[in-house]
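Much of our argument rests on the idea that a fold can be written as discrete symbols. The amino acid sequence and the backbone structure tokens for this protein are reproduced below:

___
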Amino acid sequence: MASSAYEVEIRFRVDNEEAAYVLLPFLAESLRAPTTWSTDILGRQLYAAGELLRIGRVSTPDGVRLFLGAKGPDLGRFANIRQEWGEEITNGATDSAILARMDVAGDFASGQAVEDALAAAGHQPFMSFSGVDRLGFYAPLDLHTKISRCPKIVGDGVLVELELAADSVAAAQAAEAKLRAIAQEYGVTERLFREEPPTLLFRHTFPAEA
């Protein structure tokens, strides 16, 4: 069964990790080891309607793990606020809330079977990207942190993302205000941009339509 919450995110680009650590002194100590990933964005009609459906592949010492994710429309103003669902599908899916949202019924014995069922329902991959993340958590601010390297969306630079989790729209709006205060405290407000990675990817993949 997929978990659901509201993610509240802000982001900015810098030339390298060292520049990010200067701006956010807490960042380096919060981050874990790098993880290699690739992601397919599914369902162009969903994307056009402001929603997101994706399948991510994450490399681990035990092999590649598959994750199915979905996001609702962006509700934010300063930050991006989206309801988010996520579940692991490495070994298939049973009683999947995400598949139910996509009107895909049944249980599936493998990740490939999930992908095939989504494609049969009209949710084929239409763009993809890959990169390396360092994820983390900074407890004093209850803040999820991330640094990403992904040439398709940030070229030779790195993307810094700060995220708070919330369990309701009201809590997400309070988290948005907290992120605004954090950005102001650390002097990064003017560096922020609202375009999320899939939006940057769309511009790269379909420049004539962006």
Observations:
- The mean pLDDT is 96.
